[in-house]
Design brief:
A hairpin with a 3-residue loop joins strand 2 and strand 3. Helix 7 packs parallel to helix 9. Helix content is 38%, strand content 27%.
Length: 365
């Protein structure tokens, strides 16, 4: 899948990802024998910081000073990703349009691509449609809101980094599928990753990405819910979400934090909505994308925080009657001593997963 390139130097590649939760950066060292995370950086901030542009800009400038000390701009060029909750994917079909500019003009005219002043968008051709009745191609449009992303890119360049490319968060999971899902592949694999800010469902047919969708599910929403209902600070609310919330909601465990019943009820409703949304996506894929050429998804691979929150994984496993497996990419890579120390100190393993996937896309480039 294509990505937006600005230039490519001979520097090492550093993935920088801004999000609602903070700024993270990751660098890889790749040899024929191993892949090693040798640079890891995470500076958290409030979930609400990006809603106030002046405060966000000031905080970003402060964080960038720490990053350039750790990863000097003279040594690294940057692949930037905006990993916030504005990520959006739109699948569509068009006639055969191979020219990128012509395709973009067509999609803008049809309002499939959103307003270019408010959104950063890119269209990628997934391949010819399998339709036997019409000659067309499958296209995925990836989008992020431009306000925060453009501010972050400007700050990155002002700090002295060469901006090599913009990439989109869902692409990280395509990398994981290529690297970590070779064993047990079926003709139709669905890869699901539930995240703190963005959750992604991608479907692969004969080892090729054919569909990608951003689910309306964010663990950060539960953090906000608990903060508001229980009058807790952000760190305490996040600890509950990552700790006992889903055991209490899905398994009936006793709450040590006295989680309010109305919160548990809302969690159950939202999880029901998630299950329904996944089923609708599967139905859309079967009926519209492959036009009834298959009867069902053959395997689901989980790669997000649900691999570490057992109650969510068990619930999903119960709701979908297809073979499932879970793979944690962050447990399938080596770490430099420096990076491992930083990740343990920052407790940033979950937070850095998408940055790692994007770094894999540029490994060896």
């Amino acid at each position: 899948m294509a990505n937006i390139f600005f230039g490519r130097g001979k520097k090492k590649t550093l993935v920088i990802e801004s999000s609602d939760m903070g700024l993270r950066a990751l660098g890889l060292e790749v040899t024929e024998e191993s892949i090693t995370i040798n640079k890891s950086f995470f500076s958290p901030w409030s979930l609400f910081l990006s809603q106030t542009e002046e405060d966000f800009a000031a905080n970003l400038n402060t964080v960038m000073k720490s990053l350039i000390t750790y990863c000097p701009p003279k040594e690294y060029s940057v692949v930037y990703c905006c990993g916030d909750s504005s990520n959006w994917n739109q699948w569509t079909q068009t006639g055969i349009i191979e020219d990128e500019e012509e395709l973009e003009e067509f999609l803008l005219a049809r309002k499939i691509m959103r307003d270019q002043e408010a959104w950063i968008s890119e269209a990628s051709i997934l391949g010819p449609s399998i339709s036997e009745e019409k000659e067309c191609q499958d296209v995925i449009v990836q989008m992020i809101k431009s306000q925060v992303a453009q501010l972050a890119m400007d700050t990155i360049e002002e700090a002295g980094y060469e901006l090599e490319a913009i990439d989109f968060l869902p692409n990280s999971y395509t990398s994981f599928y290529d690297y970590y899902c070779e064993d047990g592949r079926t003709n139709t694999d669905a890869l699901i990753s539930l995240g703190w800010e963005t959750s992604v469902l991608s479907i692969f047919n004969n080892n090729q990405l054919r569909f990608s969708y951003c689910l309306n599910f964010r663990l950060s929403d539960y953090v906000v819910l608990i903060m508001q209902k229980m009058q807790l600070d952000e760190a305490s609310a996040m600890e509950i979400v990552y700790g006992e919330l889903f055991d209490v909601a899905l398994k009936g465990s006793t709450s040590e934090s006295n989680i309010m019943p109305q919160i548990i009820d809302e969690v159950k409703v939202e999880l029901d909505c998630l299950i329904d949304e996944i089923r609708r996506v599967f139905a859309f894929y079967i009926t519209k994308v492959v036009e009834w050429k298959i009867e069902n998804i053959e395997r689901i691979v989980f790669m997000g925080v649900e691999t570490r929150i057992e109650a969510i994984y068990d619930h999903l496993n119960f709701c979908f009657q297809v073979p499932m497996t879970k793979i944690d990419p962050m447990n399938n890579v080596e770490y430099s001593v420096e990076a491992a120390t930083r990740i343990e100190k920052d407790n940033s393993k979950d937070i850095l997963t998408t940055s790692f996937g994007l770094a894999l896309r540029y490994a060896g480039s």
